[in-house]
């Protein structure tokens, strides 16, 4: 038998199979119990009549005794030991010439006990045989064909009723499963519509307290997340291509200038310096994009014990060489250690110092403070620049985002420094936030202290 392809068909088939097994077991048990009961009643009927015969023997003639014992399908044969004289009774009707008093209703024999005689079987007939006083042999027999026929008729009725019950159950199971599995069909339709390009389709189930309702709600949430991820990816690719276009256009313009004109040595050196600057800018942007991708997938860390103040002093010294017009102040508590990757932690501090360097005018000050707060070690990087407006403080941690005053394409980077720094901080079990401490901008790196 081929397995149905649809879930509804499999559910219906499973219900029908289970119901068939239950009905078959129930009908078989009923038939066996009924047949055993009827045969037991037939045997009891014979032994009861034999006990009655033993009580009445000697008080009635042979024929009258036989007539008294007949009834309920019992065939009576009472003969002398030599077989010369026999009296038989095989039906419930009174024998010829024997009347019943007017108004008297037939009644069964008054039983007082059951004779302990064996019940024997010959084909479909069961019988008992016993010797009575006076050299008489009594044989009582009963044909069980009617019992077998009654059980067979019951089986026919059970089969017909079972088939009808299975048909009704199959119809009901099909309708119920169709209604119960409708959300799955809706999910299929929505998935096909989305695959065809209609990204805004949703299930919008009214109830989420059922299994399928929760599945449909999770399906909608997954679609929302996938759509948001697609939007973010498209925005990321658009911003990345836009950022790369600027240095590539600069290199292309300088290269075309070299081809079109015959510049002198000084002009060639100036063009070469510009091309190197633009190529470095493009390379830095590519490195930042790779770092962002690794941050999203999980950055592999080489964890060791790092003193945060010493690392901050080393990075500040590098920043001094890049911007001698700014003052750098590093202070804090020595001996504050964190467990982390020194290269990645240095990258966080470098990004924060670069961000402060771009935002601080000449003659300004960049401060670095390291202190402990309970089980956390905090590093604050502040500057004396224009700061970040309240409406932009969440935006600056987005990729390719810049504040109007502190970042621009000409004075700053591509807008990936702070998102990369926050991603690396979170990879170390910490976070990077903006702290409103007054004039200028302050960013706080919060890390768990080393155990």
Automatic annotation (TrEMBL):
Location of the HAMP domain: 178-231
Record-annotated Histidine kinase domain positions: 239-451
Pfam families: HAMP, HATPase_c, HisKA
Keywords for this protein: Kinase, Membrane, Phosphoprotein, Transferase, Transmembrane, Transmembrane helix, Two-component regulatory system
Protein's UniProt keywords contain Phosphoprotein: yes
EC number: 2.7.13.3
Superkingdom of origin organism: Bacteria
Catalytic activity: ATP + protein L-histidine = ADP + protein N-phospho-L-histidine
Keyword Transferase assigned: yes
GO molecular function annotation: kinase activity
Catalytic class of the enzyme: transferase
Compartment(s) of residence: Cell membrane
Region listing for Disordered, in residue ranges: 89-111
Xref: PANTHER family: SENSOR HISTIDINE KINASE TRCS, SENSOR HISTIDINE KINASE YKOH
The protein's name in its UniProt record: histidine kinase
Organism lineage: Bacteria, Bacillati, Actinomycetota, Actinomycetes, Micromonosporales
């Amino acid at each position: 038998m081929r397995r149905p392809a649809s879930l509804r068909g499999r559910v219906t088939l499973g219900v029908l199979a289970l119901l068939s097994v239950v009905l078959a077991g129930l009908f078989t048990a009923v038939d066996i119990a009924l047949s055993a009961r009827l045969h037991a009643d037939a045997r009891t009927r014979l032994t009861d009549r034999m006990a009655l015969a033993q009580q009445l023997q000697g008080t009635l003639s042979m024929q009258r005794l036989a007539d008294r014992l007949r009834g309920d399908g019992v065939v009576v044969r009472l003969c002398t030991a030599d077989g010369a004289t026999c009296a038989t009774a095989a039906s419930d009707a009174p024998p010829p010439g024997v009347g019943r008093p007017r108004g008297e209703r037939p009644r069964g024999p008054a039983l007082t006990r059951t004779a302990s005689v064996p019940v024997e079987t010959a084909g479909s007939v069961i019988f008992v045989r016993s010797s009575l006083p006076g050299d008489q042999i009594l044989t009582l027999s009963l044909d069980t064909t009617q019992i077998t026929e009654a059980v067979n008729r019951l089986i026919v009725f059970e089969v017909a009723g079972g088939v009808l019950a299975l048909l009704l159950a199959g119809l009901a199971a099909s309708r119920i499963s169709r209604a119960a599995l409708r959300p799955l069909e809706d999910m299929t339709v929505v998935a096909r519509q989305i695959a065809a390009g209609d990204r805004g389709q949703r299930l919008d189930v009214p109830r989420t307290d059922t299994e399928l309702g929760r599945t449909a709600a999770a399906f909608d949430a997954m679609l929302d997340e996938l759509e948001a991820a697609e939007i973010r990816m498209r925005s990321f690719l658009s911003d990345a291509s836009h950022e790369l276009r600027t240095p590539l256009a600069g290199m292309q313009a300088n290269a075309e200038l070299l081809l079109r004109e015959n510049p002198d040595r000084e002009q060639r050196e100036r063009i070469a310096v510009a091309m190197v600057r633009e190529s470095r800018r493009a390379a830095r942007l590519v490195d930042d994009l790779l770092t962002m991708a690794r941050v999203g997938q999980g950055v592999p860390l080489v964890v060791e014990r790092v003193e945060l103040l010493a690392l901050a002093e080393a990075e500040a010294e590098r920043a001094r060489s890049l911007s001698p017009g700014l003052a750098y102040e590093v202070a804090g508590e020595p001996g504050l250690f964190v467990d982390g990757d020194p290269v990645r932690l240095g990258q966080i501090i470098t990004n924060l110092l670069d961000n402060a360097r771009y935002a601080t005018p000449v003659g300004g000050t960049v401060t670095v403070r390291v202190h402990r707060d309970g089980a956390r070690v905090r590093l604050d990087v502040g500057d004396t620049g224009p700061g970040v407006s309240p409406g932009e403080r969440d935006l600056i941690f987005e990729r390719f985002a810049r504040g109007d005053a502190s970042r621009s394409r000409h004075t700053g980077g591509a807008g990936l420094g702070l998102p990369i720094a926050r991603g690396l901080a979170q990879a170390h079990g910490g976070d990077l936030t903006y702290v409103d401490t007054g004039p200028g901008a302050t960013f706080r790196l919060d890390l768990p202290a080393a155990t």
